[in-house]
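Bit of a strange request maybe. I'm writing a small parser for C-alpha cell strings and I need a real example to test against, not something I typed by hand. Could someone generate the C-alpha cells for this chain?
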Amino acid sequence: MADKKATSPLVKLAIDFGPLIVFFASFKLGDIYLATGTFMVASVIAMIASRVITGSVAPMLKVTFVIVMVMGGLTLYLQDETFVKMKLTVVNGLIAAVLLFGLMTGRLYIKMVMELAFEMDDEGWRKFTRNYVAFLVVMAVVNELIWRTQSTDFWVNFKTFGYMGATFVFIMAQMPMMMKYMPDEDEKGGDV
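Reply from user aminoacidic:
Good idea to test on real output. This should exercise your parser:
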C-alpha cells in the first residue's frame, strides 16, 4: 500500500472536478451520450491520477467511480439518458444513508474524511453530519425534480454549476456552527 503524498489543493481539485468539467464540455460539443462516455473515461483517468499523484484513492472517489461506471454503462448500453441523470441522486442518497447510519451507531464517518481540513469536537461533527445528510437529501430531491421536469441542457448546467454553487453556499452557511465547535488556540496544546 502506497503512502499518502503531500498534494497541492489545486491538484486535488483537478482530480475531483476534472471529470465533471470534461462531462460539461463534451455535452456542449456533442450530446448526453458523448458526455457520458467521456465522463466515464475521465473518471478512470482521475482514479489513476489520484493513485499516482497522491498515493491513494479517496473512498468517496471509489464509490463515485463505481456508480459512474454502472449508471454510465446503462446509459450507453440502453441509450437511455435517465441513468446518467439519476447518478447524482444515487450518489447523494448513498452518502446520506452511510452518514446517517454512522450517526445512529456512534460513528462519525465524515470526521474521518474531513478532519484534516477541519478540527472540531465530536458534538460539532455530529451536527455537521446531521446538516450534511439533510443537504444531500434535499439535493437528491432537487436533482430528481430538475431532470424530470427540465431539458437535458438545463440539467447539465445544474449538475455542473448549480450543484457546486449550492454546495459552496451550504459549507459557508455551516462555518459559524463549525467555528463554535473548533478548539481555542489554548486548547490546541500550544507552547507552554
